[in-house]
Amino acid sequence: MDAYRDRFIDHIRVERGLSRNTVQAYSNDLKRFQDYLADLNITDPTQVSEDIVEAFLDHLDSEGMSVRSRVRYASSIRSFFNYLMREGVVSANPLELLESPRFLSKLPRYLTSEEIRALLCAPDDSTPWGIRDRAMLEVLYAAGLRVTELVELGLNAVNLEVGFLVARGKGDKERIVPLGEDAVKWLDRYITHSRPVLDKGCGGGLVFLNRSGKGLSRQYFWSAIKKYALKAGITTDISPHTIRHSFATHLLAGGADLRSVQAMLGHADITTTEIYTHVERERLKSVHKKYHPRS
C-alpha cells in the first residue's frame, strides 16, 4: 500500500498540479486509512471492499469526527481508488456505490462593511509590522485571496502602478486580480517604508516578511486576524477565509456579475461561486423581514 500511495501522491502533485496543502491533506487522509487497514491485516488494495470503507467511516464517526471531515476522507479514498483503477491495479472502486456522509451546506460567514472597516483599522500603523499587517488585511479584502496566496505573494507579482496583482492559486494556476486604491496605498507604504526595515536578505522575494526577514506563516496570519478581530470588537469567530467570503459577498451585493467574481476568486467551477448568491438572497430576506411592515 505504501508504494501505491506514494505513486498516487506523486501523480496529484506533478501531473494534476494540486497545491502543497491539498497534497498534504490527501496524504494524511490516506495514511490514516492505511493504518486502519493494517490493523485488519490488509496490505493489498484489491482486498478493500465497500464494507471495509464504510466501517472505516463509521470508526471516524465513533471518534467524534465531524461529517464534513468524513466527507473529505471519503473523497480522498475515492480519488485514490479511481487512480488505482486507471493504473489497472484494481478492477472496481469500493466507493462506487457507497454514499458519502451527508452534511447540510452552510452558507459562508462574512463580515458587514462596518466590521470590515473596523478590522482593517485595527493594526497599529506606527510600527513597521503594524503597517505590514494593515497592508495584508487590505490586500486580502481587496483581492479576495486565500491565505496561502497572500503569504506566498511575490514582489514580482505586484504592479502598483496599474493596480493589480497576480495570484497563484490551486493547481499553480495564475489569475490577475485588481486592487483598490486603499490596498494600493497601504501596500505601497509597506513596500516603500516598512519592508526595508524587515528585510534581512533572506525573504526570497516575498512581499510580506516577519521580523527575522523571512516569509510569514499561514499560522501567524490566522492568529493575527483573530487578535485584530477582537480589537475591532468583532465577537464572531473569523478566519482569513471569512475575509475572502466577505470580498465575494460584497461584490455581488454591489452588482458584480457572477462570472467576474468567479474569475477573481479563482474558482474552476462556477457552482462554487454560486453559494454567494445564496448568501445575498439570505441577506435580502433578512432586510425585508426587518423593515417590511407586513413581514
Question: Can you walk me through this structure?
Answer:
- With 295 residues, the protein is mostly helical.
- It has two domains: 2-86, DNA polymerase, domain 1; 113-290, Orthogonal Bundle (hpI Integrase, Chain A), CATH 1.10.443.
- Helix content is 58%, strand content 4%.
- The chain contains 13 helices and three strands; from the N terminus they run αααααααβββαααααα.
- It has helices at 2-15, 20-39, 50-62, 67-86, 113-120, 128-143, 147-151, 181-198, 218-231, 240-253, 258-265, 270-273, 275-291; strands at residues 158-159, 164-168, 174-178.
- A three-stranded antiparallel sheet has the order 1-2-3, with no helix packed on it.
- Helix 6 (128-143) packs antiparallel against helix 8.
